[in-house]
Design a protein that fits this description.
Strand order of the largest sheet: 1-2-3-4-5-6-8-7
Helix content: 25-40%
Order of helices and strands: EEHHEEEHEHEE
Radius of gyration: 15 Å
CATH class: Alpha Beta
Oligomer: single chain
Strand content: 35-45%
Structural class: alpha+beta
Number of helices: 4
Shape: globular
CATH architecture: 3-Layer(aba) Sandwich
């Protein structure tokens, strides 16, 4: 898979993860702890140093062609994150995303995923997946809005707050 390090969208731009964004990332995560409760790896990113470390890890995954992580910017302000993690010879990929609560309802995630989806399918990708907590109604709405099909429920798949949560699996095929 090949992705440009900057992808222009309608009123936003996807930029490859860079350590210069660490402070903005840590502020976004601090301000959205309740909204990001379903995404374990974000919980520790509340300091600039931890955010830098996470971004360096994102850069390593990019170099290894495992996962392509982007920050969503509009008006030079960090709005969120979207990534595509590829496997099986780049024909299957998992999407992940999160957004600042102040930017919800403006279509950033939907349009960002549409851009990545287009690039993925143009490069002979076949199956895109979204895994989301069964209680995360906003993430479920994104998957449905984009035409992903519900494949099923992974029962008691995630341990969160000493309780097992169900996870929904959505997919979209290049033939859909």
């Amino acid at each position: 898979m090949n992705f440009n390090k900057e992808i222009k969208g309608d009123n936003f731009v996807l930029k490859v993860a860079d350590v210069s964004y660490a402070l903005q990332l840590s502020e976004l995560v601090k301000n959205n702890q309740k909204e990001l409760k379903y995404i374990d790896f974000t919980q520790s990113l509340i300091t600039e140093e931890k955010a830098k470390s996470a971004i360096l890890s994102m850069q390593d995954r990019w170099k290894n062609k495992e996962q392509y992580c982007f920050f969503i910017f509009s008006d030079n302000c960090l709005k969120g994150y979207v990534a595509i993690k590829v496997r099986y010879g780049d024909v299957v990929a998992e999407l992940s995303y999160y957004l600042d609560k102040a930017s919800c309802g403006k279509g950033y995630i939907t349009r960002a995923i549409m851009l990545l989806e287009k690039i993925f399918y143009e490069q002979k990708g076949h199956r895109l997946e979204i895994f989301c907590n069964a209680e995360n109604s906003k993430s479920i709405a994104v998957a449905k809005r984009l035409g992903f099909c519900l494949d099923g429920t992974l029962r008691e798949y995630e341990l969160r707050d000493n309780k097992f949560d169900d996870v929904l699996v959505f997919s979209k095929l290049s033939t859909d």
